[in-house]
Amino acid sequence: MSTVQPTWVDGAAGSGFDIDHLPYGVFTRDDDRRRVGVRIGDLVLDVAAASPPTALAACLAAPTLDALMARGPKTWQAVRAWATDLLTDPGRAEEVRPHLHPVDEVSLHLPFTVADYVDFYASLDHASNVGRIFRPDAEPLLPNWRHLPVAYHGRAGTVVVSGTDVPRPYGQLKLAPDQPPVFGPSARLDIEAEVGFVVGVGSRLGDPVPTSAFADHVFGVVLLNDWSARDVQAWEYVPLGPFLGKSFATSVSAWVTPLAALERVRVPLPTQDPEPLPYLHVDEPAGYDLAMEVEVNGEVVTRPPYRTQYWGPAQMLAHLTANGASLRTGDLFASGTVSGPARDERGSFLELSWGGREPWILDGDQRTFLEDGDEVVLRARAGDLTLGEVRGRVTARR
Ligand code: MN
Fold first, then answer.
1. How many Å lie between the centroid of ligand 1 and the Cα of residue 120?
2. Predicted pLDDT at 192
3. pLDDT digits (tens, 9 = 90+) for 361-389
4. Which residues face 224 on adjacent strands?
5. Are 251 and 166 a contacting pair, CB within 8 Å?
């Protein structure tokens, strides 16, 4: 599949982190200084230490990806071309090897400063399932759903990197419809398997970003777990939408896959009916074929297919700026729960357990929502590439 020379890095060729991937992250070694890294195989390249060209050095010698992200597509292409050259030219192996570190010997950190966080609701199957669960006697989709990508603003300050524990959230709970609410730990802690898009280049207040400018602004893709307390959410969400049922934590992968690496898995969006308004028109292919899976305590429990999502990311970006709202470096917008049409393609336990009424089986036990100690891992493949995983363990509140 690769159109470039093979890498000289041992073990990388044919892996999910081959030369045609090169995702970015931020890591520390013993000295605790945060550095920008590029992953190749099971190694991390310390990019600033590997003598990048002067024009690129300043944005790479930084403790986050922010400066690199802000520079835009020309710089992104230049860094990728330089790293590709370093890792494919056997003549440079001796010089570069000291700057490659085993990924299991470094600590990975949140790779960019999250500016605003927006979460969409782009899956037709997810939106339909939720409609059927909560409003069984009504039309599953609300009237606006096929006309615009529905979303809410989330809490940027509680976006955490993969590997961060998630304390069980507390909140107001309605234990019975005819009883007043009580305050306590959520008994319906859930996940949402999602894909996140990371904005690099900002925009000016008052200037909408057209769908055609998607790749001028979006730096890359992360996997994202939008942890959700369904019992808190169910009581609080009317009429202004999700708040404390979701704001307690959102986990993202430590690796950001550059948009350029995902060119190979672009696919057309499903047919949109009715045809969206002109500002939401996209040139196809505007979707991505990512095969996701959700693992709980080491067991894969569902495999959501991203390619079936109704609204594409360029449409989400155009919609979130359509009113003239500006973008900032580090803005994060996510797809919403990725669910496919089949039962074993549902991206939340709300759907897998059909509102808690149909338990699913984990290691022989009947389960509905998450228990303390459960560890959830989201993974995804993009053709031959492996996206960075998102791992998180539920803990009892301290
Ligand atoms: Mn969500």
1. 7
2. 98
3. 999 999 999 999 999 999 999 999 999 99
4. 194, 252
5. yes
Tokens of 236: 């609080």
Rounded Cα distance, 169 and 34, in Å: 30
Torsion, Cα 370 393 218 156, to 10 degrees, reads: 90
| Neighbouring residues of 2: CB distance < 8 A, sequence distance ≥ 6 | 18, 19, 20
Query: For the chain, which domains are there?
Result: 24-109 (2.30.30.230), 117-395 (3.90.850.10)
pTM of structure: 0.97
For residue 169, the CA-to-ligand 1 centroid distance in Å is 16
Query: Which amino acid makes up residue 190?
Result: D
Tokens matching residue 75: 């710089």
Catalytically active residues, by annotation: 126
Element (H, E) at 86: helix 73-88
pLDDT at 117: 98
What's the length of the chain?
398
Q: Are strands 287-288 and 257-258 parallel, antiparallel or unpaired?
A: unpaired
User: Which residues touch 188 (CB under 8 Å, ≥6 apart)?
Assistant: 229, 230, 231, 350, 356, 368, 369
83 alpha carbon – ligand 1 mean position (Å): 34
Helices (H) and strands (E) counted in the chain, each on its own, are 9, 27
Q: How far is the CA of 48 from the centre of ligand 1 (A)?
A: 35
b/e per residue, 38-66, with b = 16+ CB within 10 A?
Answer: bbbbebbbbbbbbebeeebeebbeeebbb
- Listed as ranges, residues in the chain with pLDDT below 50 are 1-2
> How would you classify the pairing of strands 159-161 and 250-252?
parallel
CB atoms inside a 10 Å sphere around CB 251? 25
pLDDT tens readout for residues 89-144: 999 999 999 999 999 999 999 999 999 999 999 999 999 999 999 889 999 999 99
Cis ω on the peptide bond leading into residue 270 (within 30° of 0)?
Answer: no
Please report, to the nearest 10 degrees, the dihedral formed by the alpha carbons of residues 349, 366, 183, 120 taken in order.
0
